[in-house]
Amino acid sequence: MSNPSLLILAGDGIGPEVMDEVKRIIDWYGDKRGLKFDVSEDLVGGSAYDKHGTPLHDDTMAKAQEVDAVLLGAVGGPKYDNLDFSVKPERGLLRLRKEMDLFSNLRPAQCFDALADFSSLKRDVVAGLDIVIVRELTSGIYFGEPRGIINEGNERVGINTQRYTESEIARVARSAFELARRRDNRVCSMEKANVMESGVLWREVVQEIHDAEYPDVELTHMYADAGAMQLCRWPKQFDVIVTDNLFGDMLSDMAAMLTGSLGMLPSASLGLPMDNGRPKAMYEPVHGSAPDIAGQGKANPIACILSLAMALRYSFDQGDEATRIENAIEKVLADGLRTADLLGEEGVTPVSTTEMGDAILAALDASL
Ligand code: IPM
Ligand code: MG
């Protein structure tokens, strides 16, 4: 049997430096756990644009379709701000999501105990937090037509369209219910059924799928604005939240911050099963390319490393190894090591990106 294959697209800004730490952990698995991957690398985002004039070359897209999983760093940067919309770095990411049909985006927000005081919320509100936002990722206002900026009379009009089919809602709802069954068995669905027809349909279809296929799971519905408020007020009331592409984008940034830093949050984007039974999959940190700190050894590699852990869990059936990584990170944080995004408390030890990687590798060694 050949090794499972990984395509690394490190991207822009801090993407390559956090991905360097992930590569060391992949090597560690090959050396110490006999878990070897065939790793290839390619460009995405601004770095791809610089070389090919497009944020995602067709050959890279084809490779992404073939591998068992894609690991992505981050895309974007001020250098590309004035590019035409069609070749902006973000379009590379959106093309991967769309063409791989990665409709279910899992964004866990877990608060490591050592960071509970670092959150902008009170300790008891966030300590022990463990929720997952399931964001629909291939439809909605991100992709709906018509879109564009048109002239109307003597002014311009910007247009985007929120559009959801029943089957698009049904499949992401199923993935949320499936996930809930492996957790605390509760799903809260969020939309704006009070003002949007797409929200009315969303609510109906989620309820229908629930009643027909997942009656054992507890289902509640919430308007997305109230959901945002509840996420700050008492986030531990949630287990799995399922929501559309745009609300999911916003609610997941907010949930991420509950845990102290965007530098901590991984994500998995999953599609339909491939011939080998594994889902089409891409794993990426929730944080962006952070161009302001790129290349200075300040970036926190934990979100990207936790994304590798999600790959082990969801693509490669190695849940125990995912837990091993999570425990190693827990240990390093408990020991007081902090990258620049997590500084501010008394008595912690500031470390660089690579030193954080060193410490996590040492904790992995110690776990054997
Ligand atoms: C995210 C990001 C992306 C999005 C950007 C980079 C296109 O914010 O993954 O949350 O809006 O989906
Ligand atoms: Mg976002």
Give a quick set of tags describing it.
binds magnesium ion, 10-stranded mixed beta sheet, Isopropylmalate Dehydrogenase, two-stranded antiparallel sheet, alpha/beta, binds 3-isopropylmalic acid
Describe the protein's architecture and organization.
The chain has 368 residues and is an alpha/beta fold. It folds into 2 domains: 1-111 and 261-368, Isopropylmalate Dehydrogenase (3-Layer(aba) Sandwich), CATH 3.40.718; 130-258, Isopropylmalate Dehydrogenase (3-Layer(aba) Sandwich). 41% of the residues lie in helices and 23% in strands. It has helices spanning 15-33, 46-52, 58-66, 89-99, 123-126, 166-181, 197-213, 224-233, 245-258, 302-314, 319-334, 353-366, and strands at 5-11, 38-42, 69-74, 104-110, 130-136, 144-152, 155-161, 186-191, 218-223, 240-243, 266-273, 279-285, 337-338, 349-350. The strands form 3 sheets. A 10-stranded mixed β-sheet has the order 2-1-3-12-11-4-5-10-8-9, sandwiched between helices. A two-stranded antiparallel ribbon has the order 6-7. Strands 13-14 form a two-stranded parallel ribbon. A hairpin with a 2-residue loop joins β6 (144-152) and β7 (155-161). α1 packs across α10 and α1 runs parallel beside α12. The radius of gyration is 20 Å and the shape is globular. The chain binds 3-isopropylmalic acid (IPM) and magnesium ion. Residues 90, 93, 249 line the site of 3-isopropylmalic acid (IPM). Magnesium ion binds at residues 249, 253.
